[in-house]
Design a protein that fits this description.
Number of helices: 7
Radius of gyration: 17 Å
Structural class: alpha/beta
Distance between the termini: 25 Å
Helix content: 25-40%
Strand order of the largest sheet: 5-8-7-6-9
Order of helices and strands: HEEEEHHEEHEHEHEH
């Protein structure tokens, strides 16, 4: 743990109480309302937390919410910093180190994504099974020591993935599994890029999450990731893709995503 994460964790404990956090949740574009479901919540603006994202993307509330959700003490990060904002693949490292310092051993990541699969349309929920990162960017570049050589064979925790699928079946929530391709953004992908990604075995494309998965595995956090499909990838549907549409569709599908995450917490996975 770094001095920065310890300092920030102490600020959070002073405001939200000293009880350990069990699970951290990062909310993507349009998915912020889940934070409003936290009981006994303490909300802290990112601006008050050293090392947390200080920029912002519309659709992100830029606050940390600590309290009870699904019977677990959680830290909900309502918003993230993306690589395309400042060119820093490790931008979320201080925030993730802080939730680890608060006690979190599990991390649930969410995002809005585009789909390559005709049967996985807008508002579909996809549990990540793996990722592709051909960006040449890695949040561990520049780190020293053998610990930087992180094994990513089970980047997404098998038990958490199985538990998510079990909860989805129990609650009757339609869902899929898929491989997520991290694209740096901020431009949406070209149709030719989408065709190339499809050949490489990806099911989804988005502009976040993968750097956080790598950082979390370096921190030995158990990770699960969920995408809310907001559009078909470029060239599939013929319609223009916009961030406004991304936020609107994610909000429409957010109730099912929230139910799935709360069900996972209630099951104690």
């Amino acid at each position: 743990m770094t001095a920065l994460s310890m300092t920030t964790a102490e600020i959070i404990r002073t405001r939200a109480g000293s009880a350990p956090v069990e699970v951290a949740i990062v909310l993507g574009s349009g998915l912020g309302p889940l934070a409003d479901r936290v009981e006994g919540a303490t909300a802290i603006p990112y601006a008050d937390l050293p090392g947390f994202p200080q920029g912002g993307v519309s659709g992100h509330q830029s606050r940390l919410v600590v309290g009870q959700l699904g019977g677990r003490r959680v830290a909900v990060l309502s918003g993230r910093e993306h690589y395309y904002e400042n060119g820093n693949a490790a931008a979320m490292r201080p925030a993730l180190e802080t939730v680890q310092a608060l006690g979190a051993g599990r991390l649930i990541l969410t995002n809005a994504a585009g789909s390559f699969r005709p049967e996985v349309g807008p508002t579909s929920i996809v549990v990540h099974s793996d990722y592709v990162n051909w960006s040449g960017r890695n949040p561990l570049i520049g780190e020293h020591g053998d610990e930087r050589f992180v094994d990513m064979r089970e980047a997404y925790d098998p038990a958490l993935r199985a538990a998510l699928k079990g909860v989805a079946h129990r609650l009757g929530i339609p869902h899929h599994e898929g491989v997520y391709f991290w694209f740096s953004g901020p431009t949406f992908e070209s149709p030719a890029e989408i065709r190339a990604m499809n050949i490489l075995g990806a099911d989804l494309v988005g502009m976040s999450t993968v750097p956080e998965v790598i950082l979390a595995r370096r921190l030995k956090l158990r990770v699960a990731a969920l995408s809310m499909v907001t559009n078909f990838a470029a060239g599939m549907a013929g319609a223009e893709i916009s961030h406004a549409d991304t936020k609107a569709v994610a909000a429409r599908g957010g109730a099912a995503m929230a139910a799935l995450i709360i069900g996972l917490l209630e099951d104690g996975a």
